[in-house]
Write a structure and sequence with these properties.
Helices cover 55% and strands 5% of the residues. The longest helix has 32 residues. It is elongated and about 60 Å long.
Length: 184
């Protein structure tokens, strides 16, 4: 473990991160459900059946969306969900390496335990474990750590998929033979 911040303060960040990631998935699903109900709702008795189909479809899409945000996205983006990136957190193995996809899958499956009673089980487990791990972290042998703030780290990746669009800015800015007025 790289040891960069696993104190009690990280528990609050993790709670906020979980809420933000859930909202990132749930708000678009809710807006889509409202649009579908408004545009395609049937009249009369069939409305209740239609609403059940919309709710079950929305829950299934929410499940897929949460799997994507909590499993696939951090696997492909350095152990960070979008909210983890905003809050400067990341998932690493207990020895400090980037976890494989199977580890993220185990963590997500264990959310059935951690998410019980609106996440209270996960919060309690984080507060009593030495490394502030939820049950899914203990089983998967991972920790969530703070990422040190870097002056060069952008909030979002640049257009080239990296954190910076220009590899060596001194080459772009240090040329004396290039002028804005087109003269030499």
């Amino acid at each position: 473990m790289s040891g960069s911040g696993t104190g009690r303060g990280i528990v609050g960040r993790r709670v906020v991160q979980a809420v933000l990631d859930e909202m990132l998935v749930m708000v678009p699903m809710l807006l889509l459900a409202i649009a579908v109900i408004w545009l395609f709702h049937p009249r009369g008795v069939a409305l209740l059946g239609f609403l059940k189909v919309v709710v079950y479809t929305m829950l299934a899409l929410d499940f897929v969306g949460l799997w994507f945000v909590n499993t696939w996205w951090p696997y492909r983006h350095g152990g960070q969900t979008p909210a983890m990136r905003w809050l400067r957190l990341r998932v690493v193995t207990v020895d400090g390496r980037h976890p494989p996809l199977s580890v993220f899958l185990v963590r997500e499956l264990m959310m059935m335990v951690d998410g019980f009673a609106w996440g209270l089980v996960g919060i309690v487990v984080m507060l009593v474990t030495r490394r502030r791990q939820r049950f899914g972290d203990v089983v998967a042998r991972t920790v969530v750590e703070r990422v040190p703030k870097s002056a060069g780290q952008a909030a979002f990746p640049g257009p080239d998929g990296d954190l910076g669009a220009v590899a060596r800015p001194e080459l772009a800015l240090g040329r004396t033979d290039v002028r804005l007025d087109g003269g030499q």
